[in-house]
Specification:
By secondary structure, this protein is of the alpha/beta class. It has a single domain, classed as Alpha-Beta Barrel (TIM Barrel), CATH 3.20.20. Helix 2 links the parallel strand 4 and strand 5. The longest helix has 20 residues. It binds iron/sulfur cluster. The site of iron/sulfur cluster (SF4) has 13 residues, from loops. Iron/sulfur cluster binds next to loops.
Length: 225
Protein backbone atom coordinates (compact mmCIF):
# COMPACT_ATOMS: atom_id res chain seq x y z
CA UNK A 1 0.00 0.00 0.00
CA UNK A 2 1.20 3.48 -0.91
CA UNK A 3 1.96 6.00 1.82
CA UNK A 4 3.08 9.63 1.49
CA UNK A 5 5.67 10.66 4.01
CA UNK A 6 7.78 13.62 4.97
CA UNK A 7 10.37 11.14 6.19
CA UNK A 8 11.61 8.72 8.82
CA UNK A 9 14.42 8.85 11.35
CA UNK A 10 16.02 6.45 13.80
CA UNK A 11 16.82 6.86 16.62
CA UNK A 12 14.52 9.60 17.91
CA UNK A 13 14.66 10.14 21.67
CA UNK A 14 12.40 13.16 22.11
CA UNK A 15 8.98 11.88 21.00
CA UNK A 16 8.06 9.13 23.42
CA UNK A 17 9.98 6.87 25.80
CA UNK A 18 13.27 5.35 24.75
CA UNK A 19 14.95 5.19 21.36
CA UNK A 20 12.29 5.19 18.65
CA UNK A 21 11.71 5.09 14.94
CA UNK A 22 10.00 8.33 13.92
CA UNK A 23 7.68 8.33 10.89
CA UNK A 24 6.28 11.66 9.66
CA UNK A 25 3.25 11.57 7.38
CA UNK A 26 2.92 14.19 4.65
CA UNK A 27 -0.25 16.27 4.39
CA UNK A 28 -2.25 18.14 7.01
CA UNK A 29 -5.26 20.38 6.40
CA UNK A 30 -5.76 21.43 10.04
CA UNK A 31 -3.64 24.57 9.74
CA UNK A 32 -2.73 25.27 13.37
CA UNK A 33 -1.28 28.75 13.84
CA UNK A 34 2.29 28.35 15.09
CA UNK A 35 2.74 24.82 13.68
CA UNK A 36 6.47 24.01 13.58
CA UNK A 37 6.00 21.60 10.65
CA UNK A 38 4.39 23.65 7.91
CA UNK A 39 6.47 21.77 5.35
CA UNK A 40 4.25 18.74 6.04
CA UNK A 41 0.99 20.52 5.17
CA UNK A 42 1.00 20.04 1.36
CA UNK A 43 -0.44 16.57 0.64
CA UNK A 44 1.37 16.53 -2.70
CA UNK A 45 4.83 17.19 -1.24
CA UNK A 46 7.09 14.74 0.53
CA UNK A 47 7.79 11.30 -0.88
CA UNK A 48 5.48 8.52 -1.98
CA UNK A 49 6.68 5.14 -0.78
CA UNK A 50 5.22 1.78 0.23
CA UNK A 51 4.13 0.75 3.70
CA UNK A 52 6.32 -2.34 3.27
CA UNK A 53 9.39 -0.12 2.87
CA UNK A 54 8.61 1.68 6.14
CA UNK A 55 8.08 -1.66 7.86
CA UNK A 56 11.50 -2.78 6.63
CA UNK A 57 12.96 0.26 8.44
CA UNK A 58 10.96 -0.68 11.54
CA UNK A 59 12.32 -4.23 11.38
CA UNK A 60 15.86 -2.85 11.21
CA UNK A 61 15.13 -0.50 14.11
CA UNK A 62 13.78 -3.37 16.22
CA UNK A 63 16.91 -5.38 15.48
CA UNK A 64 18.92 -2.35 16.58
CA UNK A 65 17.12 -2.12 19.92
CA UNK A 66 14.22 0.25 19.18
CA UNK A 67 11.85 0.76 22.10
CA UNK A 68 9.00 2.26 20.16
CA UNK A 69 7.51 3.71 17.00
CA UNK A 70 6.25 7.29 16.90
CA UNK A 71 3.99 8.32 14.03
CA UNK A 72 3.53 12.04 13.53
CA UNK A 73 3.24 14.47 10.69
CA UNK A 74 1.52 16.05 9.01
CA UNK A 75 -1.72 14.39 9.97
CA UNK A 76 -1.48 10.58 10.01
CA UNK A 77 -5.28 10.20 10.11
CA UNK A 78 -5.60 11.92 6.74
CA UNK A 79 -4.16 8.68 5.29
CA UNK A 80 -6.22 6.29 7.43
CA UNK A 81 -5.77 3.12 5.36
CA UNK A 82 -2.01 3.56 5.17
CA UNK A 83 -1.83 4.32 8.89
CA UNK A 84 -3.85 1.21 9.74
CA UNK A 85 -1.59 -0.94 7.54
CA UNK A 86 1.56 0.58 9.03
CA UNK A 87 0.42 0.04 12.62
CA UNK A 88 -0.81 -3.50 11.95
CA UNK A 89 2.49 -4.44 10.32
CA UNK A 90 4.51 -2.72 13.05
CA UNK A 91 2.60 -4.59 15.78
CA UNK A 92 3.08 -7.90 13.97
CA UNK A 93 6.84 -7.36 13.63
CA UNK A 94 7.10 -6.15 17.24
CA UNK A 95 5.25 -9.19 18.57
CA UNK A 96 7.33 -11.53 16.39
CA UNK A 97 10.57 -9.95 17.61
CA UNK A 98 9.49 -10.26 21.25
CA UNK A 99 8.99 -14.01 20.89
CA UNK A 100 12.67 -14.35 20.00
CA UNK A 101 14.05 -12.31 22.86
CA UNK A 102 16.23 -13.85 25.54
CA UNK A 103 15.81 -14.67 29.19
CA UNK A 104 16.15 -11.01 30.19
CA UNK A 105 12.53 -10.66 29.12
CA UNK A 106 10.98 -8.61 26.36
CA UNK A 107 11.82 -4.97 25.87
CA UNK A 108 8.86 -2.63 26.23
CA UNK A 109 8.03 -1.57 22.67
CA UNK A 110 5.01 0.64 22.00
CA UNK A 111 3.31 2.32 19.06
CA UNK A 112 2.47 6.01 19.60
CA UNK A 113 0.52 8.24 17.19
CA UNK A 114 0.29 12.03 17.21
CA UNK A 115 -2.92 13.44 15.72
CA UNK A 116 -4.26 16.96 15.55
CA UNK A 117 -7.80 15.66 15.85
CA UNK A 118 -9.53 16.04 19.20
CA UNK A 119 -10.90 12.91 20.92
CA UNK A 120 -14.44 13.94 19.88
CA UNK A 121 -13.33 14.04 16.23
CA UNK A 122 -12.16 10.44 16.21
CA UNK A 123 -14.78 9.00 13.89
CA UNK A 124 -15.27 5.27 13.43
CA UNK A 125 -12.90 5.30 10.43
CA UNK A 126 -10.22 7.13 12.42
CA UNK A 127 -10.62 4.83 15.41
CA UNK A 128 -10.27 1.84 13.10
CA UNK A 129 -7.03 3.33 11.75
CA UNK A 130 -5.75 3.64 15.34
CA UNK A 131 -6.79 0.11 16.33
CA UNK A 132 -3.22 -1.13 16.80
CA UNK A 133 -1.82 2.02 18.43
CA UNK A 134 -0.87 1.70 22.10
CA UNK A 135 -1.26 5.40 22.80
CA UNK A 136 -2.25 8.58 21.05
CA UNK A 137 -1.51 12.27 21.63
CA UNK A 138 -4.53 14.23 20.46
CA UNK A 139 -5.50 17.77 19.65
CA UNK A 140 -4.58 20.81 17.59
CA UNK A 141 -1.50 22.77 18.53
CA UNK A 142 -2.73 25.94 20.24
CA UNK A 143 0.02 28.51 20.43
CA UNK A 144 -1.84 30.51 23.10
CA UNK A 145 -1.96 27.53 25.49
CA UNK A 146 1.70 26.72 26.31
CA UNK A 147 2.56 23.73 28.46
CA UNK A 148 5.57 22.01 29.93
CA UNK A 149 3.87 18.60 29.81
CA UNK A 150 6.21 16.04 28.31
CA UNK A 151 5.80 15.40 24.56
CA UNK A 152 2.84 17.81 24.28
CA UNK A 153 2.98 21.14 22.49
CA UNK A 154 -0.01 22.86 24.10
CA UNK A 155 -2.01 22.38 27.26
CA UNK A 156 -5.10 21.06 25.46
CA UNK A 157 -3.24 18.10 23.97
CA UNK A 158 -3.95 14.79 25.69
CA UNK A 159 -1.78 11.69 26.03
CA UNK A 160 -4.26 8.80 25.97
CA UNK A 161 -3.22 5.14 26.39
CA UNK A 162 -5.34 2.86 24.20
CA UNK A 163 -4.13 -0.61 25.21
CA UNK A 164 -2.92 -2.28 28.42
CA UNK A 165 0.61 -2.04 27.00
CA UNK A 166 0.09 1.68 26.42
CA UNK A 167 -1.34 2.17 29.90
CA UNK A 168 1.66 0.47 31.50
CA UNK A 169 4.17 2.26 29.30
CA UNK A 170 2.76 5.77 29.61
CA UNK A 171 1.45 5.81 33.21
CA UNK A 172 4.68 7.39 34.52
CA UNK A 173 4.55 10.15 31.91
CA UNK A 174 0.94 11.34 31.92
CA UNK A 175 1.62 14.29 34.24
CA UNK A 176 5.41 14.52 33.88
CA UNK A 177 6.97 17.77 32.71
CA UNK A 178 9.66 17.91 30.08
CA UNK A 179 13.29 18.15 31.13
CA UNK A 180 16.17 19.80 29.33
CA UNK A 181 16.39 17.33 26.45
CA UNK A 182 13.31 18.31 24.48
CA UNK A 183 14.86 18.71 21.04
CA UNK A 184 17.15 16.61 18.91
CA UNK A 185 18.84 17.78 15.71
CA UNK A 186 19.97 15.70 12.76
CA UNK A 187 20.82 16.31 9.12
CA UNK A 188 18.64 14.44 6.64
CA UNK A 189 19.64 12.80 3.37
CA UNK A 190 18.58 16.04 1.62
CA UNK A 191 21.11 18.02 3.67
CA UNK A 192 18.39 19.86 5.61
CA UNK A 193 18.76 20.29 9.36
CA UNK A 194 15.82 18.62 11.10
CA UNK A 195 14.71 19.18 14.65
CA UNK A 196 12.80 16.38 16.38
CA UNK A 197 10.82 16.96 19.53
CA UNK A 198 8.34 19.38 21.07
CA UNK A 199 9.76 22.83 21.88
CA UNK A 200 8.55 25.12 24.63
CA UNK A 201 6.99 28.41 23.53
CA UNK A 202 9.69 30.69 22.19
CA UNK A 203 12.32 27.97 22.08
CA UNK A 204 12.66 27.89 18.29
CA UNK A 205 13.08 31.67 18.15
CA UNK A 206 15.75 31.38 20.84
CA UNK A 207 17.46 28.62 18.86
CA UNK A 208 17.49 30.86 15.78
CA UNK A 209 18.89 33.74 17.80
CA UNK A 210 21.71 31.64 19.22
CA UNK A 211 22.57 30.17 15.84
CA UNK A 212 22.65 33.66 14.31
CA UNK A 213 24.96 34.81 17.10
CA UNK A 214 27.21 31.88 16.23
CA UNK A 215 27.20 32.89 12.56
CA UNK A 216 24.68 30.27 11.36
CA UNK A 217 21.66 31.52 9.43
CA UNK A 218 18.60 29.34 8.85
CA UNK A 219 16.65 29.41 5.58
CA UNK A 220 13.20 27.94 4.84
CA UNK A 221 12.27 27.46 8.47
CA UNK A 222 9.34 25.06 8.64
CA UNK A 223 7.73 27.06 11.46
CA UNK A 224 7.36 30.24 9.37
CA UNK A 225 4.64 30.99 6.76
S1 LIG B 1 0.44 21.13 14.53
FE1 LIG B 1 0.00 19.11 13.64
S2 LIG B 1 -2.22 19.16 13.31
FE2 LIG B 1 -1.59 21.28 13.57
S3 LIG B 1 -1.17 22.03 11.48
FE3 LIG B 1 0.78 21.27 12.32
S4 LIG B 1 0.94 19.17 11.56
FE4 LIG B 1 -1.23 19.78 11.38
Amino acid sequence: MEIRLDGTHYPVSTLGPGQRLGVWFQGCSLGCAGCMSRHTWDPGAGTSTMVGDVLARWKEALAGGAEGLTVSGGEPLQQPAALAALLAGAARLRDGARRHEGSAGPRPVDLLVYTGYEPGELTAERRTALARADAVITGRFRVAEPTRLLWRGSANQRLIPLTPRGAARYAPYLARESGDRRLQAATGADGALRIYGVPLRGELAELERRLRAAGVGLTERSWRP
